[in-house]
Amino acid sequence: MNGEIVLLSGDSISIKALPVSEMEVIKYTINDEDSDINKLLEGYNIYVTEQTNIYVEFDIIEYPIKINVYLDDAKYTDVSHDYSLYKDGTLFKELNNNDGILNTDVPAGSYTIYEDEHSTSKSIVVTRNDKVFNLNYYTVNLEVVSPNDNDYVKINGISYVDGTNEREIVVLEGDTISSCSV
Predict the structure, then answer these.
(1) What whole-number distance in Å separates Cα of residue 77 and Cα of residue 101?
(2) How crowded is residue 134: how many other Cβ atoms within 10 Å of its Cβ?
(3) 51-77 tens-digit pLDDT
(4) How far is 137 from 156, CA to CA, in rounded Å?
(5) Is the pLDDT score of 16 beyond 50?
(6) How many CB atoms lie within 10 A of CB 182?
(7) Staple 67 to which of 15, 102, 159, 170, CB 3.0 to 4.6 Å?
């Protein structure tokens, strides 16, 4: 926001930074000289005797979050998925996977965790406090046996057909398992 205020010489102006929520003052100068940010936050008067330029810069406050990834209630250190956070349906930030721990800093708000570009339907709400979230995966032993060759089981959009023999499938907590036939 830019603006100009005209004062008569000898007048003073009282200024106080009132940051919007989730913003902080990171730089404050008067006539291109760095000034004490604490004075700006407390509020004080500037006695004006010449043209004066006041510059205040704000930045978004980010808060640390940690997402732990578990498989069958133990740390999932061998997870091979890529994770990201979406905000309002748009990619906000890709997350680095460090042996099943996803650490990052984000502004306050609501986010949805995505796995390999697909929504997990797991939402997190970040506030001023440190947040820890868990993604829980579980092993499902699957065997499809049917007299009809067209029968299949669908797990989270992936079809497993008769004849796949017994296999282990890792699913995210809350995924739906449904059986269907064509």
Answers:
(1) 8
(2) 11
(3) 777 777 777 888 889 999 999 999 988
(4) 13
(5) yes
(6) 9
(7) 102
Q: What tokens appear for 106 in the block?
A: 């984000």
Residue 33: both structure tokens together: 């000289």
What is the rounded distance in angstroms from the CA atom of residue 69 to the CA atom of residue 80?
Answer: 11
**Distance in Å from the first CA to the final CA of the chain:** 61
∠ Cα 48 49 55 (to 5°): 45
Contact status, residue 120 vs residue 85, Cβ threshold 8 Å: no
Cβ–Cβ < 8 Å for 153, 177: yes
More confident residue, 118 or 44: 118
What six digits make up the tokens of 7?
């004062």
> Whole-model pTM?
0.65
Q: What's the rounded Cα separation, in Å, for the pair 182 and 177? A: 16
Q: How far apart are CA 118 and CA 113, in angstroms?
A: 9
